[in-house]
Amino acid sequence: MADELRIFSWTISFVVFLLVNVATCQDAGDGRMSLVPAMFIFGDSLIDNGNNNNLPSFAKANYFPYGIDFDGGPTGRFSNGYTMVDEIVALCSSLSLYALYVPGFATLAPTASLPPKVAVRFAYTSPAELLGLPLIPAHSQASSGDQMRFGVNYASAAAGILDNTGRNFVGRIPFNQQIKNFESTLDQITDNLGAPDVAQALAKCMFFVGMGSNDYLNNYLMPNYDTKNHYNAQQFANLLVQQYTQQLMRLYNLGARKFVIGGVGLMGCIPSILAQKNTNVCSEEVNQLVLPFSNNVKSMLSNLNVNLPGSKFIYIDIKNMFQDLLTNYRRYGFSVINRGCCGIGRNRGQITCLPMQTPCPNRDQYIFWDAFHPTEAVNILFARKAFNGGPDVVYPINIQQLASL
Question: Is the peptide bond before 65 cis (omega within 30 degrees of 0)?
Fold first, then answer.
């Protein structure tokens, strides 16, 4: 009986919070209302914020120097600080505050030639702090409706679209299981309060999904997987997107309507891949391997926008963002583009960042934090582009426009 009362209390508070947010998020006249009531996040280590911490997994980042620039230290984020999603949450929470405190923010070009930390330092700290908004919690750490008020992050390092992706790391939460975790949350809420109220709330929420990188890095390209013996590049891309389509439709059938889909980056340019060669040149072979997947995802989203009533899918073209950054890195304030800030071996990418390792001191000038992941400075830069950028980096509309629908 006590457990039933606890669950009922949790579900009541969670849905009340969501419904209150739905009622108020559009009223930003005083600069203190969020653009969306909540965000639900699915993905891999690029946006994981601690879901692997308590798993029997080799894919963890809950140790120093991860989080060296994050308030509170290591959390499980695979970054020295913010992830891309952290910054998007802050932007969605406080757009009108930028207008109050940062003149010209709304019209500032996403490719403005300013060092990332100079251009956006205010954008990812002060507004969220002034609003008192918490960062979205990891699913493994959220135990109450109050903690989940602004959404939940289900992302897991080493996770993939395919369930067997990332098995070398042992524990991880594949995308299918992430969806099941979200579904379990909704089942509890819907059983107690009914589907109409939940559906009303979810239709206004934003769903961020970033999957696919591990299906290449920790599946197709791994020597102990035989995937490449069964599929060529196009066939594997077709397999992935077939699964991906079904997974996104599951989220739609659960009530999701506003989707932000993060594309994969230039994986042939990360330190882990560069370290496999004696040159500092991106692996065109790896970049070409992944290209059919990116093309298929774009086609998939176009079809879903047409065939799923009431839905809106937008695509963040991470590949284009990285190509622009690597070409114009000095313009953005970076100086090191081909090695990690923290790691061991060639390009600091042969072994990724180890516990208590001393990272580079000038982290703002590095594109890559470790063997696989970008620095906080890049995450913030890319988040801003996705938020208010043009169709060269996010389309058919940007995140700010999606939030306003």
Answer: yes
How far apart are alpha carbons 207 and 251 in whole angstroms?
A: 9
C-alpha span between 376 and 380 (Å, rounded): 6
CA distance 292 to 347: 27
Task: Please report, in angstroms and rounded to a whole number, the separation of the first and last CA atoms in the chain.
Answer: 42
Question: Phi, psi (5° rounding) for residue 4?
Answer: -65, -40
Per-residue confidence (pLDDT) for residue 21, from 0 to 100: 57
> Is the distance from CB of 39 to CB of 53 less than 8 angstroms?
no
- Structurally, the chain folds into a number of domains equal to 1
Greatest alpha-carbon span in the chain: 65
What single-letter DSSP state applies at residue 331?
Answer: T
Give residue-wise pLDDT tens across range 131-180: 223 689 999 998 766 667 788 999 999 999 999 999 999 999 999 999 99
CB of 318 closer than 8 Å to CB of 46: no
Domain of 362, CATH number, reads 3.40.50.1110
| pLDDT value for 149 | 74
Cα separation, 297 vs 166, whole angstroms: 21
Angle subtended at Cα 54 by Cα 18 and Cα 129, rounded to the nearest 5 degrees: 45
CA atoms of 287 and 300, how far apart (whole Å):
20
Range of 374's domain? 2-404
Tell me: the pLDDT tens digits for 375-391?
999 999 999 999 999 99
**pTM metric for this prediction:** 0.87
40 strand-pairing partners: 152, 207
- Which residues does the annotation mark as catalytic? 45, 370, 373
In degrees and rounded to multiples of 5, residue 333 shows phi and psi of: 95, 10
Identify the sign of the CA torsion 25, 29, 30, 35: positive
CA atoms of 98 and 123, how far apart (whole Å): 7
Contact 278, 345 (CB under 8 A): no
- Geometric angle at alpha carbon 326, from 359 and 48, rounded to 5°: 55
